[in-house]
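Predict the 3D structure for this chain.
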Amino acid sequence: MAYHITLVTNHSNRSIAITNPATEADSKLVGPNSTYVPKRPILVNKLEGNPTYAEAITKAINMYTKTDNYCFWDNTNSAVNGIGENGGTIAFNSSAGNLDITVKADGTLSFARAASVASAGQT
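Done. Predicted structure below.
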């Protein structure tokens, strides 16, 4: 089973950009304080191991926010992992399924299972 992004909510006061090197159609600019529901769920690409930011940016979903440029992926072991260009990390441990991603007012990301209240840890 795979992870799919079904909702992106941007609570920041700046636009964010979503890109996917695997599927150009997944790229989208989301305005400040708005919600984006993809026409079709965005597949979170699978990457094994712990790639560096430079390796991940060419293979993983990418979200550019006012705070950082985040890459994140399905680690093939029941989690979404990620890394920011500035060194922050993302760890969302949950079985595969649909995801809601929130860009907080400060530009950091929060992950939740669609229609649930689970959240991601970010360090």
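Helices lie at 53-56.
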